Amino acid sequence: MQHMRSLVGLLSFVVIGLLFIGKSESTPLDDYVRAPDPNFGWTVIRTYEQPDYVLYILNFTSQKWLDGRFYLLSSHK
To answer: How much is the pTM?
Structure first.
């Protein structure tokens, strides 16, 4: 009977733990990764068509990390 009580207690603990897994607080990194990024996009730069394959050269933009001031300052040297 003692073994059965221990097993029920353990299973109860596991079920309660599983209920709270998705409710944990997110970290700042989690928030940053999940945030929508309006700068994300991709364009096809060039396409090479071969008999056995098609090769696409793509330009991916995943985030904006420099503003226009940096570009303007660096291009006037």
So the answer is: 0.39
